[in-house]
Each structure stands twice: as structure tokens, then as C-alpha cells.
Amino acid sequence: MRIRPTVRTAAALVAAASLVAVAGPASAAPGAPGTPRYTDGSTSGGDPYFPAAGNGGYDVQHYDLGLSWYADGRLDGTAVVSLRATQDLASFSLDLRGLTASSVLVDGKPARFTQLPPGPDGRGGELVVTVAPKLKAGTDHRVTVVYSGYPGQPLDNTGAQYGWVTFADGVLVANEAEGAPTWFPVNDVPTDKATYDFRITVPEGKTAIANGEPVGAPVTSGGRTTWTWSADDPMASYLATASIGDYAATTQTGPDGLPILNYVETGLSPSRAATTAASLALQPQMIAFFEGLLGEYPFSSFGAIVDEDSVGYALETQTRPVYSGVAGQTTVAHELAHQWVGNSVSPTTWADIWLNEGFATYLQWRWSESRRAGYLAQQYARVAAIPAGDEFWTVSLTDPGAENLFAEAVYDRGAAFLVALQRTIGDAAFGELLRTWVRDNANGNVTTADLLALAEEVSRQQLDDLFRDWLTEADKPAV
Ligand code: ARG
Ligand code: ZN
């Protein structure tokens, strides 16, 4: 098991502090040379589509989430956020929406805080913490937030359910794009990846499933059961889950002994249960197939959460995708492919969403092609037949707009573009592009410009026209 970034020695802390002291003038401002100037960290992470999401001035290393859920929908939380200041801070904020904080400690000492409600558009919600003593750039801190509330069924900017979605028999948690603040205080941008621990206490008889792997067996006392999970691979906040239901567990083993842990709600109809079982049975084969295209599976486990309740979509929650009602074969292939493209290699901003959805759709087509020759060409031909002028062609894939994050074009035009790119540079160069993209950007964040640069390098061809034609221009490309 890897050593957590939160486990730091005193020596490392002293070393980090002395680094900052040496860097003095760079982080200091007007005033005496080398004197820090403490400012308020931004309440924006800078995403063009969701400016209220994320924050400035620090980088989170680890979230330790103690969550207690009650059948009436109440959620009590104690979050310990381990962060490193990246500027001299007099205050900083965490995203938190629809939940009320009752206490905030910084390094064990009570801190002053205020909560700013969501804006008129329903986005945002900030917990602003004033720190004394102030935080010096480069230093590590532990922020403990105690909070509580009734999340209900939060809605995203398009009216879809997301975040901590409460149902009569449990909770389905799917945060994309900026729904994580509906259940924990967070720096909710895809660029601030962190490790996570979860302790989820639920009414006895319910099962709570999160990312990563279980730590020990669940512990029951006084009619409530605590489920503990640890996710040691860096993870973007939109990929965190802690779903609660009446799940039956099954396990499989993937390539090289990879643990696959599946949780399927016991109340599925016989036909949905059969479809789900048939799809999940293919997971070890699918992992081996994608490893052949992309290189080794990037995380320490995989599996599924299939909930009887529905938010209307599936999500590639890290190591353990959630499915609404049923897990179909192509959906399982899609959410698995996302573990490499989306989860390990993540977008820098939400405007880059096609890098997630176009790649996962292309890879899902490749899986289907491996089962039925001709499938990929069929999909390309289907896309190519969509008439010019259709919205499918007019939305920009490099700037689709917040309301179009999950538009058909983002998925299918993105995937068809990758087919066109493959045909242009050839199978060998395209195969190298896929493997290099995933290897060089593992646990990182990317942009479309990064993809263009790598594609040109690998193929030794100029490709900016092809990229512009397919991704940016608001008309149908030469197909
Ligand atoms: N990223 C998910 C997938 O492609 C889809 C999320 C859809 N979200 C939504 N609010 N409609 O598997
Ligand atoms: Zn997807």
C-alpha cells in the first residue's frame, strides 16, 4: 500500500517551511522584502462553466469523511481536509451547499467561519474560514468541519439529479460535474485530486459502498453499522461516491489479481438482474481488452454499484461506477474505459469534457467491435449520415457550454473524430497515441491542445486542420 501524502514527518514539514522562506520574494508582495502578505483565497476555482466551484490558495491532499446517514434523509458529517497552502492565506473557502456547518477547526483550534448560500442560479455555496494564525504558503494544515443537513435530491444546472441523491431506501451519489459540495466540504475542481477515507454509518441492514477498498468488516453497534473504505489513488471530487442501499456483494478477479467488488441492489426485477449479471460477468475480459489498448488498469480495484433507484444515468465513479437501475454491457464498457480516460487522465476544465466522453465512447465502440466485426465502421457511418446543420455539428466540442456537457455530440462526434484521426494517422501511430496519452498523463489533467501536440508528435503530421474541422468549427467536417 502506498504511503498517504497526509502522513508527514516533522522533518518534511521543516524542509517545506524552509523552502518557502528561501523563496521569500516570489511569494511576498509589496512591503518589506521577504515579508508575507496574507490575502483571502479566491472563492472560485476558475472554471469557465462553474466559476462558483473550487477555490484558490490551497491544494487538498486528503479527505477523511465521517458520514452518518439516517432513514429520514438526514446526513451528519465530520470532514477532515488535509491541505497545503499555495499562497499566504488570511482566509480560504471550501465548497459546501445545502448543509449547515456547526464547527470548524484548523489544526485543532476553533476557527471563525461563515457560510455563503448558493447564488440565484442554484450554483455555489461556500464555507469561508478565517484563519488565525494565518497560513503560510507551502505549509500543511488539517481543517475539521462538522456539518449536518437534509440533502434531498439536488439538481444540476440542467435539472438532472446529482450529488447526494436521497431515496426512500438509500442514497445514490453521483457528483458530476460540481455536485460534491452537496455532501462534503470540498475544493470541487477536477484539477485538485486527493486521496480519500470514508467511514459511513447507516441503519443496521443497509450497506454503504464507496471508492477504493473496504477496510476491515463493517461494525454494528446500537442498531447502526459503520462501513469503512479507503481510496488511495488520487481522485477528482466529481468521482467520489458513498452510495447506500440494500446491496448484495459479489467478487471477481481481473488481470494480475485485480480485485473486482460488485454491489447489486437485491430488489432489481428478474430481467434487469439478468442483464446486469451478464454485463458484470464480462468485466475481467473487458479490463484485459482495454489494457491491451491503453496499458495497465490505473487503480487498485474495480467493480460496480447497481442501484435500484435511478438518477437517469450511470457515472464512472472512480474504481466503482454507479448504474441507475440496470448495468447494460456497453454502459459497463463505457464506465470502465473512463477509469483510464476521465479518471486517471482528467479534463483541466469542464470545457474539455469531450476528452472524457469522446474517448470513452470510442473505446466502448472498440469493445463492441471486438465482439462484432464492422461495428466501429457502422458507428462512424451513422454519425457521418447526420445532416449538416443539425445541432450535432454546430455545438463546439472545445467549448460546448455548461448546458451541453452531456450532449450527444460530445459523446458521438468526439468518438467519430477519434475514428477519423485513426484513419488519418494510421493504426500504429493511433495505437501509440492512446498508450502515450494515458501513460504520460496518468493521475493528471489535460486539454485538447495537449492532445493535438501529442498526436502531431507521434504521427509527424500536421493535424491542426483536422482538429479544427471536427472539434471547433460550427459546421459538418469533411467525413
Ligand atoms: N459521465 C457520465 C457517463 O458518460 C454521464 C453523466 C451524465 N450526467 C448528467 N447529469 N446527465 O457515463
Ligand atoms: Zn461517459
What does this structure look like?
- This protein has 479 residues and is an alpha+beta fold.
- It has a domain at 351-472: Neutral Protease Domain 2 (Neutral Protease, domain 2, Orthogonal Bundle), CATH 1.10.390.
- The chain is 29% helix and 30% strand.
- It has 11 helices and 23 strands.
- The strands form 6 sheets. Strands 2, 3, 5, 6, 9, 12, 14, 15 and 16 form a 9-stranded mixed sheet that branches. The chain has a 4-stranded mixed sheet with strand order 1-4-8-7, with no helix packed on it. The chain has a 4-stranded mixed sheet with strand order 18-19-20-21, with helices on one face.
- A hairpin with a 2-residue loop joins strand 15 and strand 16.
- Helix 5 (354-371) packs across helix 8 (408-425) and helix 6 packs across helix 8.
- The chain is globular.
- It starts with 9 loop residues before the first helix and ends in a 7-residue tail after the last helix.
- The model is unreliable at 1-31 (pLDDT under 50).
- Arginine binds at residues 156, 160, 162, 176, 313-316, 334-335, 357, 406.
- Residues 25-34 have a biased composition (Low complexity).
- Belongs to the peptidase M1 family.
- Pfam families: Peptidase_M1, Peptidase_M1_N.
- Residues 1-28 form the signal peptide.
- Residues 61-239 form the Aminopeptidase N-like N-terminal domain.
